[in-house]
Amino acid sequence: MKQVKVLGSGCKNCETTARIITEQAQQLGVEIELEKVTDMAQIMGYGVMSTPGVVVDGQVVHAGGLPSAADVVKWLAA
Amino acid sequence: MLEVFTKLADGVVFDLLGLTPGQKLTESLHFFIEDVSKIFVLLTLIIFLIGFFRSLVSPERARKLIGGQSPWISYPLAVALGAVTPFCSCSSVPLFIGFLEAGIPLGVTMAFLITSPMINEVAVLVLASTMGWTIAGLYVVTGLTVGLLGGLAMAALKQERHVEEYVWKIRMGQAALPAVDASLRGRLQFAGAQVREIVGRIWPYVLGGVGVGALLHGYAPQSFFIEYAGPDNPFAPPLAVLIGIPLYSNATGVIPVAEALLAKGVPIGTALALMMSVAAISLPEMIILRKVIKPPLIALFIAWLFVAFVAVGYLFNGLFA
User: Fold this and answer.
1) What is the reported pTM?
2) How far is CA B248 from the centre of its chain?
3) Record's Pfam families (chain A) (predicted)?
4) Cα–Cα dist B266/B8, whole Å
């Protein structure tokens, strides 16, 4: 089980990022626990300034802009 | 090189559809086809090229570069980085907090926040190719000046007291920058993704902007603009800025509108004032900023941009009369 967090204030890009991750996880058959973090203090706590950011198992793997499906596969497969 | 788009529009409008030159519909359609094809091709090329080098500039990197510099360096650096660093407006809050948290003064942070939506390299290159390098250059120089002076003014007026208290309490974690794939393949993929994301986000603004520009170009009578927005109306610049505020678009979308207005005899200063107002003062952006700053500072922010854009209007109308 991977812990995935999408960091963002809830704008459209953040929603899309969460959707891409859910879709890819289903395709790969990887079980994930997805959490959307909208609290600014928490987001900043990860050192991320450009949203959406993505955290996998406590590790920041992405900041700013939409991730590609290939990126997501890489994070989930690792 | 750009004549190819004029030829394309000629081909479609005159040869394919057999329309007569000089008619309103023909002129509008010609403008629309030429500008839509030109802007989308340019957008794709430019965003791809810039995307290739994008890993060099990010808000996180800008924060690191600006932090700890003396004011002589930090203000010019902030507006310069604001001009080239892209960020989606939903990032303005974390960006604002992140800057202050790094010890970057409020004035420098505001200078960055004002410049960034107004100037971006894509808009500047599209502007240059539709209206020429002189106008693009003027737009950049005035945009940088407005951001720089705005930041200095907010610092002089000690606006720190109008920042929400919680902002000062946030402690940022060690900036955990994800590793960038710097291989050629990685960069190409990243550039492709940038094109999809940015063009995917702004295409409605571009179509809307070109549509308005095309209607103005074909249907709006020249006399109307000369009378109401021409050089003889001293109220044209403030009016242009007021009209621009509720129009929410990005800088690229408003370029074709300004292009059509210029062709109708609207003076350059009035057109620039409108462009800046549409790109930099928008209600959604203000609502986002309200999360970190209190109403008095928002009011000052809007007032500064209003006064500055009107001044830009008068200045350029005067210089190029």
Assistant:
1) 0.82
2) 11
3) Thioredoxin_3
4) 27
Do residues A66 and A16 touch, judged by C-beta distance below 8 A?
A: yes
With a CB-CB cutoff of 8 Å, which residues 245-284 of chain B face chain A?
none
Query: Which are the contacts of B169, defined by CB distance < 8 A and separation ≥ 6?
Result: A41
The CA distance from B76 to B72, in Å, is 7
Question: Quick one: DSSP state of residue A63?
Answer: E
DSSP of B50-70:
HHHTGGG--HHHHHHHHTT--
First to last CA, chain B: 30
Q: What is the DSSP string of B101-157?
A: HTT--HHHHHHHHHHHHH--HHHHHHHHHHH-HHHHHHHHHHHHHHHHHHHHHHHHT
| Cβ count within 10 A of residue B210 | 27
Structure tokens at B275: 């462009």
ipTM tops the 0.90 cut: no
Domains of chain A, with CATH numbers? Answer: 2-77 (3.40.30.10)
Angle between helices B222-229 and B236-244 (to 10 degrees): 100
Q: Which residue of A has its CA nearest to B101?
A: A44
B interface test, pick of A5, A15, A49, A54 with most B CB neighbours within 10 Å: A49
Nearest-neighbour CA in chain A from B112: distance (Å): 14
pLDDT in tens, chain B (321 residues): 778 888 888 888 888 888 888 888 888 999 999 999 999 999 899 889 888 877 667 777 888 889 888 999 999 999 998 888 776 666 788 888 888 988 899 999 999 988 988 888 888 888 898 888 998 999 999 999 999 999 999 999 999 999 998 888 887 766 656 666 667 887 888 888 888 888 888 899 899 999 999 998 888 888 878 877 888 888 999 999 998 888 877 788 889 999 999 988 899 999 999 999 988 888 888 888 898 999 999 999 999 999 999 999 999 999 887
Q: How far is B305 from chain A (nearest CA, A)?
A: 25
B91 with A40: Cβ contact below 8 A: no
